[in-house]
Design brief:
The chain is built from 4 helices and no strands. By secondary structure, the protein is an all-alpha fold. Bound molecules: zinc ion. Zinc ion binds next to helix 1 and helix 4.
């Protein structure tokens, strides 16, 4: 029938887990002063499977750490440690 095209309902993933206990981001909590672009394991957790950088809302980083992450990821991409896109 016309107009009854089935639309798959995408389940929105919920990132918030109730009440926030910590108000600091994970890098601030660990006392990280510099995010190294060679830490691919750390940086890969901040990327989607398509190679995009997670937003602050998603990753929970503060503005300062998100900037460091951004810089580190862009350096790592240039050094071919991380993909620009998948
Ligand atoms: Zn931070």
């Amino acid at each position: 029938m016309r107009g009854t095209r089935q639309v798959k309902k995408r389940r929105k993933k919920r990132f918030t887990t109730g009440i926030r206990e910590q108000n600091q981001c994970r890098f601030c909590r660990e006392g990280v002063k510099y995010i190294d672009y060679k830490d691919v394991a750390v940086l890969q957790k901040l990327l989607t499977n398509r190679g995009k950088i997670f937003s602050r809302k998603r990753s929970g980083n503060c503005a300062k750490c998100q900037r460091m992450v951004k810089r580190a990821i862009k350096r790592a991409r240039y050094m071919a440690l991380l993909p620009f896109t998948n």
